[in-house]
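Let's study a protein:

===
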Amino acid sequence: MYPTIGETLSLTAEKYPERDAIVYPRRDQRWTYSEFDSRVNRLANVLADLGIEKGDRVSTLLYNGSEIVLTVYACARLGAVFNPLNYRLPAGDVSFILDDADSQLLVFEADTREVVERARNDLDTVGEYLYIDEDTPEYARDFYGLLDGAEDVLPDVGVTEDDTYAFIYTSGTTGRPKGVVHEHRAMVEHNLICVAESGLRRSDVGLSCLPLYHCAELHANLFPRVQVGATSVIHHAFDPEAVLGAIDDHDITVMFAAPTAWNALAQLAPEVAADTDSLRLGMYGAAPMPERVLEACMEAFCEEYLQAYGMTEIGPCGTFQHPDEQIEKQGSAGVPALNHDLRVIDPDGDPTAEVEAGDVGEILFAGPCTMREYWNRPEATDRSLRESAGRTWYYTGDLGYLDDDGYLFVVDRKDDMIVSGGENVYPTGVEDVLFSHGDVIEAAVVGEPHEEWGERVVAYVVGEVSAADLDRYCKDSDDLADFKRPREYYLVDELPKTPSGKVKKFGPPRGQRAIERGKFGGGSMDGSSSAHQEFTNAAPCSRGNTIRSATPP
């Protein structure tokens, strides 16, 4: 029998009451596990006094901070369903998720107040608001005022391992976000897997600098640290210089970041007087670590790096690539996590239709951390979860292959594949070639409609490089067939990202894919052609550096 998420904290607080649990420099907070446990009890009683009962949904629209950590554990104690929202969402998406989840209470802050006030008129379900900063609006209650006056008593609620722990909404790279329903048991199992795979120690001090509303930071990092009694230092948001300073100030030993963030840290490290020798393990996900970035990180920080691959629906961690495999299996996503099974099958086939080693197919997972369902999406649930031989398989929509040693290589999203002149082009293969150019920081490749060829290959690139130089580089590459070479290059200042660091692409309708223009997380999330138009109607290149190839797509 498994403990619940709330009980994992209770057990740790009983064993290690005086160990540091949460450090939040922005509010000058440092709590032992005993103090953390007490505050969680008090917040659970605050929620109960506001009418929240077992099964009710409690949402957050918060940047990183102690408040989102208190809320998730208070919900777990009370049997309420935790529902964290991306703080970059526009008001329309906030309204959609809160109503879709049937949320009864929202916790928010000064940095998200404007969005909440725009969304309020369209909300049908939220009855209570908690505000964590000063100057509480008239429609909300003071989070800390209520917390300070609440009782430190464990709520008398029968929460079990089979109860729903959270609705975690997907990042919506190709359409409206869907609520992933996770149970307590699945998340506790995921904690144990992450502890075992990463070698997490009670003496570790971890830094949470990526969004805690996202399952990568919350489920794969903070939860496991609480379960073993390690310390979590929380940063409000990712800032490379502040992160380097935090590693020095708090003797950080373990940290998770996307490859793009690790790259930024490695580039800045020589310019900042920060001692980072305490770091023993760097963790990353969202994409493989390019070899030159990995080498730069090894030189600037520690020698050991661990990659996790997966998605919200499976916990998120489904595979791990361990430190001793980083160079030998560069580009791989690793092997299945403990207690997980992995198959690569003919796309849309049944789980027994496995392809040969080296052949590309759709990636499937079966394991103890898989979601129960998509909330209010029975058809999407039926498409994604299928039974075979007594096991439930999750169809990821990712394409990949296994090598002869059983290591997984992720090729692309199934919906992102470009068909140009009858030839299949996997964008990640083209992106890898572009990124191998020393002056390219990021690259994203998509298909644009073409009257004769169906689609043509187009690249969006961040870096100090000319489009003409990129085209010459691709023509000279031994790793890129000519039909895969981009026919147009757009040099842009940044690429929009999902919270986990993946480039945000829009899939359907077919032939209308494009990178969303604008700041991270902004704009439409419905996958419509409006996002495509917003990008392509603008100047093709922010620095006037575009090339259109005269050769056919």
Summary: The first strand starts at residue 20 and ends at 24. Confidence is low (pLDDT under 50) at residues 507-546, 548-552. The longest helix spans residues 33-49.
